[in-house]
Amino acid sequence: METQELSVNISSEIEKPTKTAVLDLSAQQIWQDCLNILRNKLSNLNFKTWIEPIVPLRIEQNNFFLQVPSPFFFEWIEEHFYKTINDSLAQAYGKEIPVQYIISQDEDALNENLSPVPSVFSSPRVDETNVPRVSNNQISITPKPQFESGLNPKYKFDHYVKGESNQFALAAALAVANNPGGTSFNPLVVYGGVGLGKTHLVQSIGNQVVRSGKPTRVLYISSEKFTVDFVDAIQKNNIADFSNFYGNIDLLIVDDIQFFAGKEKTQDYFFHIFNALHQQGKQIVLSCDRSPKELKGLNDRLISRFQWGLTTDVQPPDLETRIAILKAKSSTENIEISHEVIEFVASNVTTNIRELEGCLIGITARASLEKRVIDIDLAKDVIRSVIGEFRTHITIEDIQRLVSQQFCIPEDLLRGKTRKQEVVTPRQIAMYLSKELTNSSLNTIGLHFGGRDHSTVIHAYQTVEDNMKNDAKHRQLVLSLKSKLESRL
Ligand code: ADP
Ligand code: MG
User: Fold this and answer.
1) Does the pLDDT of residue 18 top 50, yes or no?
2) Which of 27, 95, 157, 229 has the fewest CB within 10 Å, making it most exposed?
3) Domain count for the chain
4) Contacts of 331 (CB under 8 A, 6+ apart)
5) Is the dihedral of CA 337, 338, 342, 344 positive or negative?
6) What would the mean pLDDT of 340-357 be, rounded to a whole number?
7) Of the candidates 57, 81, 111, which is a domain's last residue?
């Protein structure tokens, strides 16, 4: 699609959602196309809650300015929809365009302030100046500031609520932050399920060390990004620079190391970096979605290195901690919500702190969009939809468990090597469901089924698909397993 240079300011004609804000017509049109793309990519609930409230403002100096209702809203979309929005906008615009978010908490004030155009801050250094600046009711943020350290300054120990479920991990993290490389907790490995605060905790270590003002080079990186950078360095023949860069880090934080599974070369290389840093007394902090020992596809020598330090877990929070987290979050976000509703949410959303936060923000968003009071009924509606949305995390283990129950065969046979037909068919069905219902790659799925490679998974998938087409009973069986898994959510 061609970019339109023509930029027409219109005012009162635009009804939704900012009645009198000065909007740029070309930005409006492009955003409309973008909305059509996003509608197909996101669930209805996500689209309504997180995309519809966004107002396109203008295109200026090759930046696309979007207005969002609150800092929390911004953080949420940045964390969950950053790439989806950017990709869809690039598709609608015809090429990539950086997105700048303007946060407005008060529409009237915004309208007054919109002319002249508010400035956008971009301050890509790690210090307090990265915190969104507030001027009257308006905050401007450049998303994803590229800190040298990769840290997000919002993750601090101050905002981390302590509870029985995380107190040991928190104490270890504090000890490391106060004396990086100087404790026996090297490496510090924090593991636990999704949304339980691992990223928050490991980033808090980094942020505290950065803030201590000591000349320490801190790097936070996800294992996925590390892998991509590593492959890139090999392809561009830059491996010397890559090594040099990692060799000079004082505190290396690698998040979600489960994504190293099955990536032999990356693991080998990481092993060398690990050794080099550890020998120099540099601190290493890692997170993982399960105990590294249980991680399939991770090299034994890497696992044994991890055991040099401390491995500690974070558990799902108990009721008191969940209440405390909701209270802390509503107070920092200035959300007025009664103790009764907080307790109701905390009692019903039990497994994941990200879900808890999602419900709180969903309740506020729904209350303001639908002009409803925040009460138990509203909370019920939101919990139902948010939990449904979140629990799309079916794991391969869930699938293996259900399939083995259904066919009355032990789970380890499913994961094993046997080629007996009574095992092969259920195994193929389990692989098929894993591809359909999880985000795991073919390689990862193969690893969970006795270390098979991706071509075996593709073969299994095609076999099940063919069988479903040709055999109504088979089809019914697979579909009923699928709906059982989905309805458990
Ligand atoms: P994980 O990395 O384990 O998937 P995150 O660290 O991303 O989880 O946490 C999910 C959300 O829950 C984040 O917004 C985080 O700030 C919040 N959170 C997690 N644990 C706590 C806690 N103990 N106190 C306050 N907020 C928390
Ligand atoms: Mg995380």
Assistant:
1) no
2) 95
3) 4
4) none
5) negative
6) 88
7) 111
- Residue 10, domain member (yes or no): no
Q: Could you tell me what percent of the chain has a pLDDT over 90? A: 44
Which of 313, 338, 366 delimits the end of a domain? 313
At 122, is the pLDDT very low, low, confident or very high (cuts 50, 70, 90)?
very low
CATH of the domain at 332: 1.10.8.60
Residue 185 to residue 73: CA distance in whole angstroms: 36
Cα–ligand 1 centroid distance for 289 (angstroms):
13
- Which residue is closest in CA terms to ligand 1's atom 18? 197
Host domain of residue 59: 25-111
> Which pLDDT does position 109 carry in this prediction?
37
Distance from the alpha carbon of residue 79 to the mean position of ligand 2, in angstroms: 11
Q: Is residue 124 in some structural domain?
A: no
Atom of ligand 1 nearest to the CA of 255: 2
pLDDT in tens, 311-339: 999 998 999 999 999 999 999 888 889 99
Give pLDDT, residue 107: 42
CA distances 463 to 428, 434, 443, 483, 487, Å, are 8, 14, 18, 20, 25
